[in-house]
Amino acid sequence: MKILQLSDTHLRGDGLLSFQVADTVKAMNDAMNYFSKMEQQPDLYIVTGDLADNGNVAAYQKLREKLVQLPAPVYIVPGNHDDRLLFREIFPEMCPVKEDIHPYICYTIDDMPIRIIVVDTSIPHTHWGALSEPVADWLDRRVQEYPDKPTLVFTHHPPFITGMSMMDEGFENAERYARILQKHNNLKLCCGHMHCNISTVWHGIPVITSPPISMVMELDLKPGGGDRFFLTDPGYLLHHYCDGRVNTHTCIIPTDIAYSGPHPFAYLDADKK
Q1: In CATH, what number is assigned to the domain containing residue 92?
Q2: How far, in Å, CA of 141 to CA of 37, rounded?
């Protein structure tokens, strides 16, 4: 079984460049065209948040047009730039949420060799993440349903300190999050948000963050670092269930983009679309 994780398309709905330099529509189109032509298709795709730059309806509609053309089912996770209500309106089949956890975009996929749990860590109008109490209670029940089945938990925000201080804004209820995930014997946490690939172990739990489709973060571990990006090729993760475990491969999509940067993640007042 193969699961393709992509993240952080940051699509705009107005045709302008993000942060004055990033053509997120082209990056999305390049990625979707590449995925459609892959010789070995995944069993499903999961997009781990920040689909649109600011929850923009036109951007979501553009992205939906591409996602529905992919040759395998697509599921989505909200990020801090997303809008939960619009997710359920525009992508209903891609976020099959049951009413017991509404309005959070949380759900499971149970009928495959790998179990998938999608966790909504977004807080409206904030950049950092959290495990809200309703989501924590829901996740605690879900994790214990199949404690021995290989499981991937997909979310947007990583709960650990990365060392890039501008991105390390904290994660609310992180200790309970760890205690819940530790109840499972064979689990990996798969995140977005960081715009780069990081692999670590947090409280004994394997964690990985996906490279982005748009705007690759500069690795800057100095105080105040983690707030600039490069224009370069999109990336994604491929999670492959093999020999009783999940191998995660970091992959790059070759494009004709002109490499440049680092550029600041700084909006102008007229650029918040």
Answers
A1: 3.60.21.10
A2: 39
H/E element, 139: helix 133-143
How many domains is the chain built from?
1
* CA count, 13 A, side-chain hemisphere, 61: 5
Q: Structural domain of residue 250, as residue ranges?
A: 2-271
pLDDT score recorded for residue 232: 96
**Cis check: omega of the bond before 262, within 30 degrees of 0:** yes
Query: At how many degrees (to 10) do helices 57-67 and 24-37 cross?
Result: 20
Q: Given this model, what pLDDT does residue 195 score?
A: 97
8 Å CB contact between 78 and 120: yes
| N- to C-terminal Cα separation, the chain | 37
The answer to whether 231 touches 195, Cβ cutoff 8 Å, is no
Among candidates 98, 130, 133, which has minimal Cα distance to 117?
Answer: 98
For residue range 179-204, list pLDDT tens digits in order. 999 999 899 999 999 999 999 999 99
Q: What is the DSSP string of 66-132?
A: HHTTSSS-EEEE--TT--HHHHHHH-GGGS---GGGTTS--EEE-SSSSEEEE-----TT-SSEE--
Segment (H or E) for 59: helix 57-67
Helix axis angle for 174-181 and 133-143, nearest 10°, is 10
Reduced to 3 states (helix: H, G, I; strand: E, B; else coil), residue 135 is helix
pTM, two decimals, is 0.95
- DSSP 8-state code for residue 11: B
- Separation of alpha carbons 30 and 20, rounded Å: 19
